[in-house]
Design a protein that fits this description.
The protein has 423 residues and is mostly beta strands. The chain contains 4 helices and 30 strands. The longest helix has 17 residues.
Length: 423
């Protein structure tokens, strides 16, 4: 008990000094050891990292450590504002329980060439319950080195006080059925009295869980007695992109979907994905993708979380070098981030971009994104192309913070796919 109290005071002191403009996102900081980070609803392959406050729901955070022995990992929970900066709430205000608890649900890999330990954390649990809605970040660290962050995992807790009706169209203020999609929606107040919608509500719209192009500036186009309308808002127009590319590798006995070759070079299996080419100049072709997701899977196994092996997967993009920017792999398997772990490297002799990543057997969605120098938002048009027919997934988050409130309450969440409407 004394150890936990000491750690709590240390974490508070560390956080106050070090937060500043820190913005949390789901991210791995020790990628030489930590792999396959996932944040989702347990038992649901294609879910959003959102749970309802007070309901019998949970968020599952899982990851692999590429060692063969148990490591004592601990975690702290941070309540965040709508923009994922830490809120001003203290732990005692947003949660019931202790900080600094250890992750005790783990299992060793079985019958794999690459040994690892799979860790799993369910929230809420017997030791931690949430008191407030909003955004939450979980910071995981080794118990003997609390100052070194191993990973952060982000999710949201919603108290559904409003109803959201939404739709997506290719008929936008930018172009008509060409390269963009526009999100429109209505927030039905139900049991929430919103005095000043323009200032009291914060809207965030996320495309395929990407963090670089989140729409944050939408203002109401109409305020009615029973609902607030967001329609024909320029801030809610997104480049449509293209369907994600896919591949699958489940065993070394045969090549999986879009796998050209599998070979073993001690100590790893290697899998070559078929050479990719830009699709921006080719006509749109429908493909039933999973909007950037991935999930572990293996042939003739019952528990892919511990029985799936790790291969070095080789990506190749045949195209001239893109000047004035960099090319990145993008998708949930690289946490939709632009960093060294996802950056393609240009090979001038071969005239192509290349990248090799250690990945767990399974099914993967990915795309190539061009990031211009000095910019933070990636561009799909340059390599993948932008086509209004693309089926994308948009998640609308509605936060409520009236004058005098100290944090952003998440009062509504709705996910809708382009081509569908929720009424």
């Amino acid at each position: 008990m004394m150890k936990r109290i000491f750690l709590l005071f240390w974490l508070v002191a560390f956080s106050v000094e070090g937060w500043g403009q820190l913005v949390y996102r789901t991210e791995i900081f020790q990628d030489k050891r930590i792999k396959s980070l996932q944040v989702r609803q347990p038992g649901v392959l294609f879910s959003q990292p959102v749970l309802q406050l007070g309901a019998a729901e949970a968020i599952e955070i899982s990851f692999d450590d590429l060692v063969t022995h148990f490591e004592r990992y601990a975690y702290e929970i941070v309540h965040c504002n709508a923009d994922w900066t830490p809120s001003s709430l203290s732990p005692i205000e947003f949660m019931q329980g202790f900080q600094g608890l250890t992750i005790d649900d783990y299992a060793n890999s079985f019958n794999t060439t690459v040994g690892y330990v799979n860790y799993r954390l369910m929230l809420p649990n017997e030791d931690v319950q949430f008191k407030c809605s909003g955004n939450y970040a979980v910071r995981v660290y080794r118990e003997d080195a609390p100052q070194e962050t191993v990973l952060t995992a982000c999710f949201s807790v919603v108290e559904p006080l409003v109803e959201i009706q939404a739709g997506i169209t290719g008929n936008t203020l930018v172009d008509t059925y060409q390269s963009h999609q526009q999100v429109s929606f209505e927030v039905w107040k139900r049991q929430l009295a919103v005095a000043h919608p323009a200032s009291d509500l914060k809207i965030r719209v996320v495309q395929n869980r990407r963090t670089d192009n989140i729409a944050t500036g939408a203002q109401p186009s109409a305020i009615l007695s029973d609902r607030i309308v967001y329609e024909n808002c320029r801030d809610l127009i997104f480049p449509a992109g293209n369907e994600y590319r896919r591949f699958e590798f489940l065993t070394h006995r045969y090549n999986g979907m879009r796998i050209d070759r599998i070979a073993y070079y001690n100590p790893y299996y290697h899998a070559d994905v078929f050479v990719d080419e830009p699709s921006s100049m080719t006509p749109y072709t429908y493909d039933e993708d999973q909007d950037g997701r991935y999930f572990p899977a293996c042939s003739r196994c019952e528990e892919p979380d511990t029985e799936a092996d790790y291969y070095i997967v080789h990506f190749t993009l045949a195209m001239p070098e893109a000047k004035g920017g960099r090319v990145y792999l993008n998708g949930d398997f690289v946490q939709n981030g632009f960093g060294e772990g996802s950056e393609m490297v240009y090979n001038p002799e071969a005239g192509q971009y290349e990248k090799a990543l250690l990945l767990k057997q399974g099914n993967y969605n990915y795309q190539y994104i061009y990031l211009p120098d000095e910019q933070k938002e990636g561009v799909t048009a340059a390599i993948e192309g932008d086509f209004h027919q693309t089926e994308n997934e948009y998640t609308i988050y509605v936060y409520y913070r009236p004058i005098g409130a100290r944090f952003d309450r998440l009062v509504g969440v709705r996910t809708v796919r382009s081509g569908q409407e929720t009424r």
